[in-house]
Write a structure and sequence with these properties.
By secondary structure, this protein is of the alpha+beta class. The protein has helices spanning about 1-25, 45-55, and strands at about 65-80, 85-100, 105-120, 125-140, 145-155, 160-175, 180-190, 200-214.
């Protein structure tokens, strides 16, 4: 019995010695974290390393979406009417707005402006600009935000005047760091009896967005 106890004790001491040796070799970006600060890097170096990891590595801790923002977007626009085939064109523009973080939910509003040259009614006219007043709300987890959006839209053409309508859509946004986010958004627009005509215009846009936050 004593011999077995001695063998077990010897094995535990050997395991503890190995774990201690492995711990002594533990390093974080070249800094021995288990050594006194006076023996290696000082505290400021460790703090700078951790901050660099958090801010530039995308791990910013608890994300907070509250604040003003501006950004740019570009992508695809498909415009269709009830009297002709659809037209596919490039679309791009700018936006600015404000978000408020409620904790697990984010709400906000923005103004969007896009330019394009999508044909309407078989080439009779072209949609040149789309202006939106947008409300949005979504659910966040980590640095991710999934949201729905809707609001007022105004479309301007080159020779058929302008008309207002509405849009609805969904989007996704990823907070890269506290000052920048990227995402994508899909919107469906509808303009009934465009500019007092019998033509109904529908438009679907798919865009990639980059946002600078303040």
């Amino acid at each position: 019995m004593r011999k077995s106890t001695l063998v077990i004790a010897t094995a535990l001491i050997a395991a503890a010695t190995t774990a201690t040796a492995e711990r002594d070799d533990l390093e974080f970006d070249g800094l021995a974290l288990n050594q006194p600060l006076t023996a290696g890097a000082d505290k400021s170096e460790i703090d700078q390393t951790i901050v660099s990891r958090n801010v530039f590595g995308g791990d910013i801790g608890r994300s907070d979406w509250t604040g003003f923002y501006v950004g740019g977007q570009l992508g695809y626009a498909g415009v269709d009417t009830d009297i002709s085939d659809s037209s596919d064109e490039f679309i791009g523009g700018f936006f600015g707005g404000y978000d408020y973080d409620l904790g697990q939910w984010v709400v906000g509003g923005s103004l969007d402006y896009d330019f394009t040259d999508a044909d309407v009614a078989g080439g009779i006219a072209e949609v040149e600009n789309i202006f939106r007043v947008k409300a949005r709300g979504g659910y966040k987890f980590g640095n991710n935000l999934f949201y729905g959006t809707a609001g007022y839209a105004l479309a301007e053409t080159d020779n058929l005047g302008s008309d207002d309508g509405y849009f609805i859509g969904v989007g996704y946004e990823y907070l890269v760091n506290s000052n920048f986010s990227i995402g994508t958004e899909v919107l469906y627009h509808e303009f009934n009896n465009f500019n007092s005509t019998d033509v109904d215009v529908e438009a679907t846009t798919v865009q990639i967005r980059g946002t600078f936050r303040f």
